[in-house]
Amino acid sequence: MPSTEDDLRRRAFLFSLLSPVLNKYVEGMGEGKGMYLLFVKPEATTASGLTARTALTSFFNARLVREALSARGTSSEAAMRCTDVEESMYAQLLCGLAHRGEVVRVGSVFATALLRAVRFLETHWRALCDDIRAGRADPSVVTDASCRDAVDAVVARPDPGLADAIAAECAAGSWRGIVRRLWPRAKYIDAIVTGSMAQCVPMLEFYAGGLPLVSTIYASSESYFGINLRPLDRPEDVAYTLIPNMCYFEFIKVDNDGEVDTVVDLVDVEVGGYYELVVTTFTGLYRYRVGDVLQVAGFHNAAPQFRFVRRRNVVLSVDVDKTTEDDLLRAVTAAKRLLEPLGRVLAEYTAYADTASVPGHYVLFWELTPPPPRHDDGAEDVHVARVMASCCAAVEAGLDAIYRQLRSPVRRDVGPLEIRVVSPGTFDALMDLRIARGASVSQYKTPRCVTRAEDVALLEARVAGRFFSDAAPSLELASLAVDAIAGAT
Ligand code: AMP
Fold it and tell me: Measured in whole angstroms, how far is the alpha carbon of residue 218 from the centre of its chain?
């Protein structure tokens, strides 16, 4: 994406709107620091000599943003710039823990990075406490000299009292509410939890201990779009108000069958309507399809507010069925409730359409926390197997009428849905693989559908159990839907 100085200023302007909005709803914001976990990737140079960097790195380089983060954040700049992701995470958490008493908010750009940080803390808290006790970062862990110097300056002096207090919270058994317990003055968690991040909400709420989850911004590498004017709304109610001077906004009307051939301006969108976002940016993208589908939730004065619905292209399909990211999220959200009797929660999931088998079928990879029990001989626990089979059936029941018809015993165009339970840490490994391929930690979003052979192979290698739907879903209205499709094609 082209990036210019002028555009960075525009993005920094939108960023500067966030604090006044939050100040309206949260008291005492200026009385402490934010622990923001940000990961800046190194710059590269294109063949024609232009600098190339991730959008977040550009944003971070804007003076206004850098100044705001270093004045009001706990992480040292060198820690955010450290190119080794593990070292950077360690160093930033160390700074955040050293400032424990001052932290009034905890966050990252997207929820995924924050969940990753909590999991990292679970395995590294003892070493972090040792460093606070010693008053310096362990050089064998933080090997990058500039990062270490910066962190040492933050940790500054041995503080056994602080180390013991943190260790007591971490060793207390359950990690429920750990964020609030470790940073008792925190007022909220700042991370995007809408769209594909909605899956992170239950885990984040578990760790948050009642702190509100605040999604402040809707933005992309192409342009920044809007802000959330009611930051304390529940994640499912969040709507973003587009800021009209960020770029020129247009909207392709979308209905259940896909897009409709109408493009409207920002002033012409209607409440309840679904639209695909199209932008013309100051940096030269002309009527560019961002790939996001939004729904108009209401208005702020005359400005429309949008709920993020889904990415346009994330579609599972093995026949004439089309299952979007949003459809899948809804079906999985309903089905995962069945895990409750097992005392397990769904930590992460993704899906792929297996068309190598005949008929093709949907495969979901689920990572459960804690992992389900198995017998010593590796055999599946009967109770687990029964619950997982019912989860498969419940996902199918939550999919649309076309899917259910194709799956019916009469048609058998789609095979029984399969859930493959993967071992703990699989989704971190998937994230690592994608980071190694060039993704940025801060901008990372768990893909809700995988197609690359490399990604599927990684997931496949970590499968601990396979379960199939034991019941074809109910057909109500399904045959009508398929007939309608058949008529249209
Ligand atoms: P990137 O260019 O990697 O930063 O990704 C931008 C994309 O992230 C957007 O086009 C959206 O699909 C997604 N995204 C950004 N902000 C939000 C948000 N507040 N809620 C849901 N999805 C978002």
Answer: 13
| Closest atom of ligand 1 to CA, residue 56 | 4
Cβ-based burial of 385 (10 A; exposed 0-12, middle 13-18, buried ≥19): middle
CA of 389 to the centre of ligand 1 (A): 33
**CB-based contacts of 377: which residues, under 8 Å, 6+ apart?**
none
pLDDT in tens, 421-450: 999 999 999 999 999 888 888 889 899 999
Q: Tell me if 175 sits within 8 A of 208, measured CB to CB.
A: no
* 167 or 475, greater pLDDT: 167
Q: Which residues are within 8 A (CB) of 434 and not within 5 positions of it... i.e. 6 or more apart?
A: 444, 455
pTM for this predicted structure: 0.82
**Rounded to an integer, what distance in angstroms lies between the CA atom of residue 450 and that of residue 379?**
28
Per-residue pLDDT tens over the stretch 106-154: 999 999 899 999 999 999 999 999 999 999 999 999 999 999 999 999 9
Residue 150 confidence (pLDDT):
93
In short, whether 350's Cβ falls inside 6 Å of ligand 1 is no
Quote the ligand 1 centre to 312 CA distance (angstroms): 12
What stretches of 108-256 show up as alpha helix (H) in DSSP? 111-134, 145-155, 160-170, 178-182, 201-208
Instruction: Name the residue with the closest Cα to ligand 1, atom 21.
Output: 195
Beta bridge partners of 378: none
Mutate to test the pocket of ligand 1, among 192, 246, 289, 441 (most ligand atoms within 8 A of CB): 192
* Lowest mean per-residue pLDDT among 328-332, 371-375, 397-401: 371-375
SS3 478: helix
Sign of the four-CA dihedral 134, 139, 140, 143: positive
Neighbours of 313 (CB within 10 A): 10
Mark residue 209 as left, alpha or beta (left: phi above 0; alpha: psi -120 to 50; beta: remaining). left
Helices 426-436, 453-461: crossing angle, 10 deg rounding: 150
State the Cα angle at 237 between 363 and 257, rounded to 5°.
50
Residue 177 has pLDDT above 50, yes or no: yes
Integer-rounded Cα Rg, in Å, for the chain is 24
Q: Is the CB of 388 under 6 A from ligand 1?
A: no
